[in-house]
Amino acid sequence: MIVPTTEDIRDLHERHAPSRQAFEIVYGHCDIVRRIAEQLMAGFDGAIDKDLVRAGCLLHDIGVYRLYDADGNLDHANYIRHGLLGHELLRSEGFPEVLCRFCSHHTGVGLTKDDIVGQGLPLPPADYLAVTAEERLVMYADKFHSKTTPPTFLTADAYAAYVARFGAAKVGAFRALRAVFGEPDLSRPVL
Fold first, then answer.
1. Among 25, 29, 155, 180, which is 20 to 30 Å from 68 by CA?
2. What is the pTM of this model?
3. pLDDT at 188 over 80
4. CA distances from 56 to 24, 75, 122 (A)
C-alpha cells in the first residue's frame, strides 16, 4: 500500500471542505493531532508505521465536512456519525480499508455495539474499536485537542475526568492507552 503524502491529504481536505473556515478548523485539528502523535511516537518503544500514523491523523476527521449545511452550520446532533461519514468518504475516493478505519475507529476510546445500542446512538450497531498500534495511537493523540470554539488542548487528567461520565470501562481503556503511549508535553509548541 502506498500511503498518501501530506500534500495529497491536504488537497483532499480542500476538495471536501464546504468553506475555508471549515477547512481551517478540521484540517488544523488533524495537523495538531499529527504533531501530538509524532511527539508520542518519539517515546514509544514498540514497532509502529510512522507514515501510516501521519496519514491516519490527517484523515481521521475528514467526515466532519459532511456535517456542515449550506449555511456553514455544523450538525452537532449527528456529530457522532463523523467517523462513519469519513470512512464512507475515503472509501468513495478509493482509499484502502486500513486508512478508512482511522475515521470510523477513533471516536472516544472506542465504541462498542453495546455502547451504541445502550445509548441509542445513530450508528449501525457494531464495534468501532482501534485495534492496531497505529489506530490506537491516532485515537489517543486525538484526545488531547478539541475543535471547540476556541480550540482547546486537554491534559491526560482532563480527558480522564471527561471520559469518566461514560463509565469505568472507558476510564480503564484510556488508562491503558496512557500507559502504552505516555503523555504529550502540551507546553511544547504543537502548532
1. 155
2. 0.95
3. no
4. 18, 23, 24
Residues 154, 145: contact at Cβ < 8 Å? yes
CB-hemisphere CA count at 13 Å for 100?
13
Rounded (5°) CA angle 81-6-186: 75
Residue type, 22: A
The amino acid occupying position 176 is A
Q: Is the model's pLDDT at 133 over the cut of 80?
A: yes
Domain annotation for the chain: domains and CATH numbers: 6-181 (1.10.3210)
- Which amino acid does the sequence have at 164? A
What is the distance, to the nearest Å, from the Cα of residue 67 to the centroid of all Cα atoms in its chain?
Answer: 15
User: What confidence tens digit (pLDDT) does each residue in 92-104 have?
Assistant: 999 999 999 999 9
- Tell me: pLDDT of 116 over 90: yes
Q: How far apart are CA 71 and CA 77, in angstroms?
A: 16
